[in-house]
Amino acid sequence: MDLSRGQYLYLVRIKQNPGIISDHLAQILNVDRTSAFRSISKLEKQNLITKQKDDENKKIRHLYTTQLGEQLAKKIEAENAYSNQKVLSGLNKSQIQQLKEILATVEKNAKTEWQLVKNGGKREY
């Protein structure tokens, strides 16, 4: 697909949130603004996304997938759905629900720690 590591996440989230701005995208992906800027720039150079100026605030750029980006994002989503189906095979609905709840807790904990460190907080070891 000729995407560098992690770019698929950006592309799919932009497809799912047309018009999102880079700061919000960085928050969703739990990355810093510099990393988001680099990945967004690469996607734009590959003609997978476009930036459009905001009508009111000229500093804001809204992100949209191009036709090529839309097609690639759909392919990525199909791959993700297939992979999820494969890794969850053999689990019943109750087990899948339990796993979702456990992973949601893990994600919440990781996000809390990320925000602490990102904002200059110190962790106690």
Structure description:
With 125 residues, the chain is mainly alpha-helical. 63% of the residues lie in helices and 10% in strands. Strands 1-3-2 form a three-stranded antiparallel β-sheet. Helix 1 packs across helix 4 (67-88) and helix 2 (22-29) packs across helix 3. The longest helix has 26 residues, at 93-118.
Write a concise keyword list for the protein shown above.
mainly alpha, 63% helix, 3-stranded antiparallel β-sheet, 125 residues, 3 strands
* Approximate helicity band: 55-70%
Largest sheet: 3 strands, antiparallel
Tell me what portion of residues adopts beta-strand conformation: 5-15%
Uncertain parts: none
- Helix vs. strand class: mainly alpha
- Calculate the terminal CA-CA distance, rounded to whole Å: 41 Å
Mean pLDDT over the residues: 93
Q: Choose one word for the global shape.
A: globular
Please count the beta strands (DSSP E, at least 2 residues each).
3
Measured on Cα atoms, how large is the radius of gyration? 17 Å
Strands of the widest sheet, in order across it, are 1-3-2
Number of H- or I-type helical stretches: 5
What's the helix-strand series? HEHHEEHH
